[in-house]
Structure formats: C-alpha cells, structure tokens
Automatic annotation (TrEMBL):
InterPro entries from the UniProt entry: DUF4133
The protein, known as: Uncharacterized protein DUF4133
Pfam family, one: DUF4133
Keywords (A to Z) from UniProt: Membrane, Transmembrane, Transmembrane helix
Organism of origin: Mucilaginibacter gracilis
Lineage: Bacteria, Pseudomonadati, Bacteroidota, Sphingobacteriia, Sphingobacteriales
Residue intervals passing through the bilayer: 24-44, 50-71
C-alpha cells in the first residue's frame, strides 16, 4: 500500500492573479468594492443610470491601470518599502550626551 503525495511547487512564490502580485490583489478588490458602493450612492441619489455607468467605468479603468502599473513597477514588496522609507527620519538630533553615557554604563 503506497500513498501518492502531490508536491506543492508554489512554495515561497508570491501570490499572483492575472499579472497582479501579492497585496495588489487586495488593493484592487477594495477599490472595486468602493466603486460598487459609489455606484449605489449615485444611483439612489437620482443620477441618470448611464451617467453613473460612465463615471464608474472611467474610475474603474483608472483604478485598474494604476494598480497594474504599481504591480509592474514596484513588484511584490516595493510599494511597502517605498512607504516605509518615507517614515525614516533624515537625521537624529541629540541635545545632550546623556543617551550615549548611559549606553556605556549598561555593559
């Protein structure tokens, strides 16, 4: 009695769907959900159906193009690294030497 096991060859590879990598799939899903809610609000507010479709279609096209551009430009973690780089301070300012003196006492 031998068992047949399948080997998962997708280990340590990024999640991909139609060319989108990793977190961009979630960004696209969230953006499309926001567009669906916006369409409902515009339609309930009494705007003509065709005008709603044109507005949502244009915004949806812009969303898709920008998400795909970010996915190809920055890759799997590039956009996260870019946003993290903005939070790094350009320099550190110390008004006293107390911080460095206490480091020496710790040893």
């Amino acid at each position: 009695m031998s068992s047949v096991y399948e080997i998962n060859k997708g280990i340590n590879k990024p999640l991909m769907f139609k060319g989108l990598k990793a977190q961009y799939i979630g960004y696209l899903g969230g953006g499309l959900l926001c567009l669906l809610i916006l369409y409902a609000v515009l339609y309930i507010s009494g705007l003509n159906n065709y005008i709603c479709l044109v507005i949502i279609g244009g915004l949806g096209t812009g969303l898709m193009m920008s998400i795909f551009r970010f996915s190809h430009k920055y890759g799997q973690y590039g956009l996260l690294k870019k946003s993290a780089k903005r939070s790094i301070p350009t320099y550190l300012k110390f008004r006293t030497r107390k911080s460095f003196i206490n480091l020496k006492k710790g040893n």
